Amino acid sequence: MYSLIKKFLFQLDAENAHQFAIQSLKLLGKTPFSSCSLPNNPVEVMGLRFKNPIGLAAGADKNGEAIDGFAKLGFGFIEVGTVTPVAQDGNPRPRQFRILEAEGIINRNGFNNLGVDVLIENVKQAKYDGVLGINIGKNATTPIEKSLDDYQICLRKVYPHASYITVNISSPNTKNLRTLQYGEALDDLLRALKAEQAELSQKFAVYRPLVLKIAPDLTHEEIASVADSLIRHQIDGVIAGNTTLSRDTVAGLPFADQQGGLSGKPLHHLSTQVIHQLSQELKGQIPIIGSGGIHSVESGQAKIDAGASLLQLYSAMVYQGPTLIHQLVKGIKL
């Protein structure tokens, strides 16, 4: 079935196809059809019980419009966003490009979203009762030295509505954002957000885990430094990782020279290597959510074997459809 849908979608511009898919899933979420029947494969991570270890990565449903539709595809958890304090258009179009030969995607969206308040309303209207992550970021117009203000605004607003909150400091499409991954800037950010989390947990009488999403382009020394900061500030989890600026795996292919972050199958080995290195540094103290290039049971299992406790996918859905979710849930051994 998906092969026919894919043929239609691939005749559209990549972003138009994405919007069509979101609207279709939004309609699916409103139908009486029940969620896909999958084997019970629960896992407990960060104090949360996941129906299965396969999740939807942020970026697919930026505004939380199709949460119920994605849930019916069989995901064990869903992460929406990235969302910013106020709505922004993102970078000029075209800004999404399929690398067909490699089953990859390059995007330079730039956190295009309708703002945190719209996302919260969509979350409140959703009937989904599983684990829901909300991914937060900064507005492009906010100076990098004022980034904390944006993250605090979003954290305060989404806290009562999320199962966990992801702090995205690793998108390559917001100017200077990745500088927050290093040294004192990272320590200052994590220290302030942990303090905010403590206040919010008292206010709402519930603890929401705080997760950091990092880039796959960090050096071994930088990964060690990030791991040290995560441990010292008692961050609850880490997603490894975001899209890559590297073009080594797609060099010479059509659209490979487009600016932006590369995701999909070409990212698999790089992201798995980062998970392995991060796992060695963290020594089991903080769980890792593996994301980037998962396209088969073997590639997903490689991330689990490298140290991931949960998995997220998005780009592979474009090329393979929801059957991949079923294959992963049934085939992954934790």
Automatic annotation (TrEMBL):
Matching PROSITE patterns: DHODEHASE_1 (PS00911)
Occurrences of domain Dihydroorotate dehydrogenase catalytic (ranges): 43-333
GO molecular function: dihydroorotate dehydrogenase (quinone) activity
Record's keyword annotation contains Amino-acid biosynthesis: no
Subcellular location: Cell membrane
Entry cofactors: FMN
One cellular component (GO) term of this entry: plasma membrane
Catalytic activity: (S)-dihydroorotate + a quinone = orotate + a quinol
Positions contributing to FMN binding: A58, G59, A60, D61, K62, T82, N135, N168, K213, G241, G264, G293, Y314, S315
Principal subcellular localisation of the protein: membrane
Topology in the lipid bilayer: Peripheral membrane protein
Pathway noted in the entry: Pyrimidine metabolism; UMP biosynthesis via de novo pathway; orotate from (S)-dihydroorotate (quinone route): step 1/1
Family: Belongs to the dihydroorotate dehydrogenase family. Type 2 subfamily.
UniProt name for this protein: Dihydroorotate dehydrogenase (quinone)
